[in-house]
Design brief:
171 residues; alpha+beta; 6-stranded antiparallel sheet; 5-stranded antiparallel sheet; 2 helices
Amino acid sequence: MKTVVAPDSAWEARLRWGSRRLTAEVLDGRGRTTLKLGDGPDDDIAIGSSARLELTWVPTGLEVRFSAGVEGEVSMRGDAARTFSELVRTGRVKEAADGFMLTLDAAEVLTVRIGTLIAEVRRARGRFPRLPIDATALVFIALALLGVGIVLASVMAPPEGPRLHWLKKPK
């Protein structure tokens, strides 16, 4: 999915190798929900390292699982970026069976480095929530437009009254 048509709950991961752009992936509930970086047979992107990174979309945010060898920082709501080691000390990054786990909120931006590979993960930009429009709403909108059309037609009609020739007395 292109990042231009992503829904408002989508996350985008932009991957670069040094200064060269590799790919941009969108994670959301309608399409792709996970992105795996590593050298395993079921990984989506080969990185040439024993380190692993897995991004998983959840309705409340984004789960990030990573192994040793992955460096990075999280920018939180306009504050200065905090490294993974700082987040481990505060308890934000937790140890998991296969490495570490971090959950991102909507206002956070993650930058990850594995060697010279750089992944920037953030909420997809410029998205608006889609309004649920059902048949009842469409009927209401149609009736409102019909009413406005009748009012405009009556205002724009020529100012002629009805012809009352039968009320005239014959001569």
